[in-house]
Amino acid sequence: MHPGLAPGLGATHSPEIRPRRVRSRLRARRRAAATSPSPQERATTPWRAGPKPTRVPRATAVAPSATGDIKTFADPGAVASTNNPRGITLGPDGNVWFTNLGNSRIGRITPTGVITTFLRPASNAFDFPEDIATGSDGNLWYTSHNTDEIVRFNPNTPVFTGFTDPLVNMDGPTNITAVPNGDLWSDRESGKIWRER
Fold first, then answer.
1. How far is Cα 2 from Cα 13, in angstroms, rounded to an integer?
2. Which of 110, 124, 140, 167 is the most buried (most CB within 10 A)?
3. Are residues 60 and 69 in contact, defined by beta-carbon separation less than 8 angstroms?
4. 34 lies in the same domain as 88
5. Cα gap 152→159, rounded to integer Å
6. Domain limits at 97?
7. Any idea what DSSP says for residue 63?
8. Is residue 3 part of a domain?
9. Which of 106, 156, 154, 112 is nearest to 131 (CA)?
10. Count of domains in the chain?
């Protein structure tokens, strides 16, 4: 018989002399009971351990504009029409400029919606312009996919000037962008990125 047990109590331990493992289990049960919901709470409220989740309000639907947000502008038509436009940029003159892959022209749209297109001289008339950007020099620059060039366009004269890499073939330049330091970056079908200064 355990030395701390009274005669006739069998294996029942008094609170003072319970084994350490039994006392530890009892404490764990008391803590769990203190943090668990009551049967009534379980029946009425979903319960999760830990802090209560934050409720996120639903987004409020915005009604579409009654007058619409899209406006189209009259196409010049004929050979000067907008044909498969690709790139678009805000020009140094405050107009919007774009490239026409379909008829190898670049176009200008004024704030009032007047469209004018420009064709490169006959020697490079079919250059298939892809993307266009405004350079820090006040000119427009676009990629000439068919002639493997980067072309500068002066919107004031208007004059086209093409540039090629003297060492390697530009291999179908596609996209182009201008960065604040004046450099132009473009990509090639060969999988290369080029910088023009």
1. 9
2. 140
3. no
4. no
5. 8
6. 78-196
7. P
8. no
9. 106
10. 2
Rounded Cα–Cα distance for residues 62 and 79 (Å): 42
**pLDDT tens string for the chain (197 positions)?**
445 444 444 444 455 555 666 566 777 777 766 666 666 665 565 545 556 656 655 656 556 556 667 778 878 888 778 888 889 999 999 999 999 988 889 999 999 889 999 998 876 677 889 999 999 999 999 998 888 888 999 999 999 998 887 666 667 788 999 988 889 898 877 667 778 76
Where are the strands (E) in the chain, listed by range? 85-90, 96-100, 105-109, 115-119, 129-134, 140-144, 149-154, 159-163, 173-178, 184-188, 193-196
| Tokens standing for residue 91 | 């020009």
Helix (H, G, I), strand (E, B) or coil at 40: helix
CB half-sphere exposure, 142, CA atoms < 13 A: 33
Amino acid sitting at position 166:
P
Look at the chain and count its residues. 197
- Of the CA atoms within 13 Å of residue 19, those in its CB half-sphere come to 6
Specify the pTM. 0.61
Please name every residue paired with 134 in a beta bridge, in sequence order, or none if there are none: 140
Kindly report the backbone phi and psi dihedral angles of residue 27, in degrees, each rounded to the nearest multiple of 5, phi listed first.
-60, -40
